[in-house]
Amino acid sequence: MESDKVVEVAGLHQRYGDFEAVRGVSFEVSAGEVFALLGTNGAGKTTTMETVEGFRPAHAGTVRVLGRDPHRERRRIGGQMGVMLQESGLFPELTVAETLDLWCDLIPGARPRDRLLERVGLAGQAAVRARQLSGGQKRRLELALAIAGRPRVLFLDEPTTGMDPQSRRATWQIIRDLAAEGAGVLLTTHYLEEAEQLADRLAIMHRGRVELSGTVAQVLAGSGDRISFRVPAQVAVAELPRLGGDPPRITATGGGPAATYTLPGPLLQQSLRELLNWAADRRLELAGLQVRSASLEDVFLRIAGRPAAEEARR
Ligand SMILES: Nc1ncnc2c1ncn2[C@@H]1O[C@H](COP(=O)(O)OP(=O)(O)OP(=O)(O)O)[C@@H](O)[C@H]1O
């Protein structure tokens, strides 16, 4: 039976001279799935992406795209791969229509040009030269080029950079539709909301490693819901209750010290009740009271904040 995995990466290492940019990365992308690679600057996302796209051989580990080595067997699978690089490769003097015509002529069975333009929202810009397009419009033209050949696997490196919120949402819908039609999509992004909205699964990279991966819910599980409030002036920090067994973390804010409790999910409601009862018994008002679920940003910042010394020990 043919595997539904369109991308398989196992124990990938990649070096630039003495510097190891990717240090044992593994993940898989299935047909019909959107997989997002997130990470801090320099984490190794683009290096990983370029290796999976076949632009460089793996230094160690295995990479398969549609069951084949994307570097050695690129010719066999290239026609089934759609690639949108981080850097624009458009010819500045060609119009949008000319750009697509040039590209589509090279691809057997390419989608019709006008359908592509409509799909990426550039139908009104067919006669505009590439150099005159806005940053977001350029990205959409590059997306049109990437999907022209009806790829089974689509690689998108920061696909919505430079787009306004409306274009970004429209692009997310295009990507969702492509996945619903059966394409496997691997994308990198710096927009956490993009990953939250779009990705069936994601991996967060930091300094060449995958630190966390799974569905958004799996990545957030165990990250802790939060309760925070400003410490009332008449209460000493030591008098604050323990919630879920732990004392709060105290931080300085413009309005005085703030207390934050990070709780495992199932304890949120019970802990909130305990806190409100504690405050009611003392007739205290908890100014700035906030209750919120863990966000991808919390998880990301925690990983990004890991000191280099901690990495070196691992
Ligand atoms: N050609 C190169 N030669 C030497 N070092 C490189 C080269 N390309 C990338 N690097 C280094 O490898 C590391 C990973 O870079 P990469 O571009 O893969 O990260 P990234 O996660 O895509 O970063 P960003 O989010 O900033 O685009 C960085 O430290 C970078 O400086």
Automatic annotation (TrEMBL):
ATP-binding listed as a keyword: yes
Gene3D superfamilies the record matches: P-loop containing nucleotide triphosphate hydrolases
Nucleotide-binding recorded as keyword: yes
UniProt xrefs under Pfam families: ABC_tran
Occurrences of domain ABC transporter (ranges): 7-232
Membrane-spanning parts: none
Record localization: Cell membrane
Main location: membrane
UniProt topology in membrane: Peripheral membrane protein
InterPro entries: AAA+_ATPase, ABC_transporter-like_ATP-bd, ABC_transporter-like_CS, ABC_transporter_ATP-binding, P-loop_NTPase
GO cellular component: plasma membrane
GO biological process, one term: response to antibiotic
GO MF terms held by the record: ATP binding; ATP hydrolysis activity
UniProt keyword annotations, A-Z: Antibiotic resistance, ATP-binding, Nucleotide-binding, Transport
PANTHER family recorded: ABC TRANSPORTER ATP-BINDING PROTEIN
Name by which UniProt lists this protein: ABC transporter related protein
UniProt source species: Thermomonospora curvata (strain ATCC 19995 / DSM 43183 / JCM 3096 / KCTC 9072 / NBRC 15933 / NCIMB 10081 / Henssen B9)
